[in-house]
Amino acid sequence: MKLPYRKEIDGLRALAVMSIVLFHAGFKVFEGGYVGVDIFFVISGFLITSIIVQDHRNGQFSFAAFYERRARRLLPALFVVLLLSIPFAWLQMLPGELTEFSKSLLSVLGFGSNFYFWQDSGYFATSAEFRPLLHTWSLAVEEQFYLVFPAFLLVSLKFARSATTLILLLIGLASFALSAWASLYKPTFAFFLLPTRVWEFTLGALAAQIALSPAYSRLQTYRFCCQAVSLLGLLLIIYSIFVFKKTDVYPGYLALVPVFGTSLLLVFSTNQTWVGRALGTKPLVMIGLVSYSAYLWHQPLFAFYRLRELDPLSTNVSWILIFCSFGLGYFTWRFIEPIWRIGTTTPKRSFWWFLGFCACVFVLFFLVVKYTGGYLFRLNHLPKDYFQTSWINYKLHGLNNQQCYTDVMTPCPLTSFPDQDKNLLMVGDSHAGDFGGAFTEYLQANKLNGSMFSVLGCGYVSNLKDTISNTSCSKSRTLLLDLANKKTFTTYLLVSAGELHTTAEVNEFKGLVKDLLNTKAEVILFEPRPRLKYDPKKAGVLQQNSKNTVIAFDTAVTQAWVSALTELSSYSNFKIFDQNKALIQLGCGQSACFDGHTKTGHLVYRDPTHLTDLGAKAVFDSYNAWQRRGAKP
């Protein structure tokens, strides 16, 4: 049995792409719009299975023809979007961003962008909304599925035809179990990679098995059942779009809601049902037809606009970009996608020449970016060494990143002087990590023993920062207190990102400090540094430093924090060092006009909260002078 064209599937595509675009536009009401990707995966599993099974039954299946059709369907529009993204990236991106873009461009060429974004989603990775090609991860997952699924399905149909449905079901269950586990303990793996997404494709494949079975026509005669179940499927999708949150554990168990809902629609939502007729209306079908191209365009449009503005997208701009996404999608669907599709008059040879040309351009662009440091010569209004000094040069200070800047449960030794009794430990999160080099220089200059314990994202090694998949914060706290009880260190320098606002956080902090003070060790708190409203590098590139200001918290929010510091100051071995003065003096000299730069335009901050080497050294020069004055203000 051959499946007829079903308009409602294009309508389903429309729901998927609209939810994704509105989600990326930042509309809070569509916070669950990311489930549109799952809808696409189920539809792909359904359609690919249908094509393979029908061609196999007719004795017409050819791997070469299958992959050629896929390439002609997907690659022309994709490569056109990539080509046109390059000049915008060159004009608007910072060198580091441009380097990331060139790498992601190359990963798209190799159908492995999901691996790239999986590996490159660390603590300091560029925010998703500024990555023009981030959305290609889902295309990579589909392409990888196309590589392995046809061979598996054909072997199953040939040698175990009666068990094909059972095999698909078992594979889907295994993949779902992996997804549920990995979503909790390896969330980026679960989100980006094929093994945890296979079950979504297989559910679509199982829906295709039902739709291609002889009994399917009989199933459609149960009108009430089809009406009710198709309505349920639509409600499940709508529920996930409007109720799910970005903070939810996903895909995991929650993905069952949109995936199962999509599968129900594919089986029961025919043109004989209310839902099927609604999805088959001309506007939705039209959006569904351009959905692939619109999906390709929307992320670059949003990302490149955000890259040229300091402020978030306004509602009006978001709607303009949405219309542009679908307008370009229509143009691409109408004039680009059909050029090399099977059956056109365009010579097939030109398709392969086009792919080869694009591949050469992408590789050449990557090499040029790599060997020019991201086109540093583009930004002549900035100091020549602006970007070279915009980061912490850990290697210069002989620091071992693997030991000093990960969640390895051990302090990182920096200096050792056998005749010295004083032993210092710097404790904190990534803000402590900023001082690795400057702290090392301070220790060496004063011939002091010292180590660093920088645990990313853990604040003052707080139990409250633990997640289901990462308990490094509580483990670090336990280790720190064990070292304190053994009186391993004589001085603790506490450094973290900001003031604490909740009672639980403040009480936990006080408990830690008191435990350290009770060992007779000295505890020095680095007053949290100022935080900027915008990324100073971006403001510098856009020549909008004047818009960047220091964020001031309402005193009511920090009242508990101030009270805690007042209480702890009654201990003679507790001191507070104000790093803010040193940083602001590098700039304009006043908090009201500090923008993260020196008076000569060099960077003190490398992002809104983290320091450059220049900023870190200034703080420790000030700290050294403070210590020589007897740790007095």
Describe the structure.
The chain is mainly alpha-helical and 633 residues long. It has two domains: 7-376, no CATH class; 395-628, SGNH hydrolase (Rossmann fold, 3-Layer(aba) Sandwich), CATH 3.40.50. The protein contains 26 helices and six strands. The chain has helices spanning 7-24, 36-57, 63-92, 95-109, 113-119, 136-159, 164-185, 187-192, 198-211, 216-219, 223-243, 256-268, 274-279, 282-289, 291-307, 315-336, 348-372, 401-404, 430-433, 436-446, 472-485, 503-517, 536-541, 559-568, 580-586, 613-628; strands spanning 412-415, 423-428, 449-454, 491-495, 522-527, 574-578. A six-stranded mixed β-sheet has the order 1-3-2-4-5-6. Helix 22 (503-517) links the parallel strand 4 (491-495) and strand 5. Helix 2 (36-57) crosses helix 12 (256-268), helix 11 (223-243) packs antiparallel against helix 12 and helix 20 packs parallel to helix 26. The termini are far apart. The mean pLDDT is 89.
Detail the topology: elements first, then pairings.
Elements (H helix, E strand, L loop, with lengths): L6 H18 L11 H22 L5 H30 L2 H15 L3 H7 L16 H24 L4 H22 L1 H6 L5 H14 L4 H4 L3 H21 L12 H13 L5 H6 L2 H8 L1 H17 L7 H22 L11 H25 L28 H4 L7 E4 L7 E6 L1 H4 L2 H11 L2 E6 L17 H14 L5 E5 L7 H15 L4 E6 L8 H6 L17 H10 L5 E5 L1 H7 L26 H16 L5
Parallel strand pairs: 2-3, 2-4, 4-5, 5-6
Antiparallel strand pairs: 1-3
Helix pairs in contact: 1-2, 1-14, 1-15, 2-6, 2-9, 2-12, 3-15, 3-17, 4-5, 4-17, 5-6, 7-9, 9-12, 11-12, 15-16, 20-26, 22-24, 25-26
